[in-house]
Amino acid sequence: MSWLWRALGASTGSHRRRSGQLADRALERAGELAGAGERAVAEEARAATKGGKINDEAALLAALAAGSRLSLGIEPYRVQLQAVSRLLAGDVIQMATGEGKTLVGALAAAGFALSSCDVHVLTVNDYLARRDAEWMGPLLELFGLSVASLGQDSTSAERQEAYRASVLYSPINEVAFDVLRDAQAADLNETVHRDAPVALVDEADSVLVDEALVPLVLAGAEHAAAPSGEITAAVSRLEADRDFEVDSAGRAVYLTDDGAEEVERALGIESLYSDEHVATTLVQVNLALHARALLARDVDYIVADGKVKLVDASRGRVAALQRWPDGLQAAVEAKEGLEITEGGRILDSTTVQAHMARYETVCGMTGTAVDAVDQLRQFYDLRVSEIERNQPTKRVDEPDRIYATAEDKLAAVTERIAAEHAAGRPVLVGTDDVAESERVAGRARERDTDAAVLNAKNDEEEAGIIAEAGRPGAVTISTQMAGRGVDIKLGGADEAERDRVVDAGGLCVIGTSRHRTRRLDDQLRGRAGRQGDPGCSVFFASLEDDVVRVGGAGEKVVATPGPDGRLDEKELSGFVAHCQRVTEGQLLEIHAQTWRYNKLLADQREIIDRRRARLLETDAALDELAERAPSRVEELSPLPKEALLRAARQVMLFHLGDEWSRHLETMDDVRESIHLRAIARETPIDEFHKISIEEFRDLARRAVDRAVETFESVPVDEDGAHLDEAGLARPSATWTYMVSDNPLDQHGSAASGIRSIFT
Description:
CATH topology of the largest domain: Rossmann fold
Distance between the termini: 50 Å
Mean pLDDT: 84
Radius of gyration: 28 Å
Number of helices: 29
Helix content: 40-55%
Number of strands: 25
CATH superfamily of the largest domain: P-loop containing nucleotide triphosphate hydrolases
CATH architecture of the largest domain: 3-Layer(aba) Sandwich
Low-confidence stretches: 1-9, 676-680, 738-759
Largest sheet: 7 strands, parallel
Strand content: 5-15%
Number of domains: 4
Strand order of the largest sheet: 3-4-2-5-14-1-15
């Protein structure tokens, strides 16, 4: 099977042997070097990277290992130095959870930075970015490197400073959104982002595969078409299956004839589908219905501080500054009886996959790269290097426990938690969403089992909860927040009771269902049995679980449950695994289809970015306006040239951004209806490209024409162009949209694609 492994993008055995030899030589030198002190270590590293390139990798690895020992008190393992070597070669490495990826990433980042390459270490969340920057900071600073981190709450000044660092730790979304926000700036001093040659991606499969499916959309304030209180009340009285139906995938909801008549009676109107109501009232009814039927509190969102806050399902965290588009945010607010906020217009968008093209070198690390090797090769041309464990695993992975119903499964999960707790064993329970985590915690407490709950409602308590999750008998119930990057120390944060926990069998990980991809299962399972520690994992499943309903749609299962609802038939274990493989295949197909649509827009965005840079960094804006409107420039000539240049840039950039925004809106509409092209026996992707190219061709011309028109009439003084007086003010606020992006799915996800339910 080695040929297949290589074909799928894996590094060869020769690469592994070479990295192993380099690690051995480095470890021989590291001890002696550490004894010489920090200055000697830093000088050795600089000598190994003289001229801005790595000219002695073994010496560099030795200096990095010695630096780790001196600054952190951590002596890297041989396998960790092997991993550093493969990262410096541009690979994605697979290291088992608990093998020290955080240190490996910092050592590789130092190696790149010493070679005159600033590095963005991209993580999956704020917590990990902040934690790793603080933890690894002393190591990087020993080599004279600066380090910083970004988070959702970082100010513009903090962002500007952070991007100047040699090594920046940040969630991928923060960096990408900074690029989008900078594109709205009319002055270089207003920008914050600075490109780096290297992206080192932590949890690479999550960022490069899972997150790649999510468009990153920047929106500006605009009035929302919110359902009225009367409409919200009418929709709340509708009965499922009679008045409305939800499709089998749970992604779209439709009024029945009975439901339409019920709403019409409640509103006192003749027909929702009349010319008077079809574009207004019907839209609001559908929004209210979507909010009621498809978006669940404590699953898709939480309500805190009088506001609706979206939950990022892949992370289990609150998605700060994210909203739903197309009036859906307002509909959910109306549903919850909250104050209605403004809607938004798309200003700009990108994807993680498109953003990664900005980096000259992309590498990364994860515990589950092998399962994503084909995606990494196909979409990023990245190789995967598998790194051996430092110590053999002692974790026991039990067979799945499968039940007929979700209620039977919950009872069994509760029983297992109580038993492990009574035995003095720490337990980590992984759940799908906020509601389930609280439901499981409630059942556990009914059994006199105290449980700490970690989810989007209390993410500020994350560090404290994780620190105590390894205590004897501790029960921690978490969403995906604890599925990646979390190191639970046996015996508690100080490991004072480690021996007692080891004697009890180590950490027990319980999954309350299978995820749509086994990589997430493996990440959760990997919280136990780290670095040779004992531990166990077991997953519970039911025939009512999401992965079974979606992956097994249309298939009939015949089985007889026992008295407790458990299904013992061996075939069912294979069936659940089959359902998971189906959902994984669906995700891969969606990714491939989505990128075919996004790639053209990404190419077009590069053209727009180059145009923006030219207008911002040169006198091109004023030169072009002087050529097209010489009399106006002559009229304004008494003003300082800098004021004229500022005004020209403001006008030109405003209309370029506005035309690009209109283009994105148009293409979004095209994608909403592209499935109709397939019905007409046309190829959707070809038609999309044809329309996109035609729409984009005249964009620059229209932007310049409109800019000339504005420049000739807008008030201009020493402060620049007063666009607001011409009704051309930029949005007073911006936010990001949480959407899905499957152009061939006419329904979209439960959180997007609203227009498709209006037809």
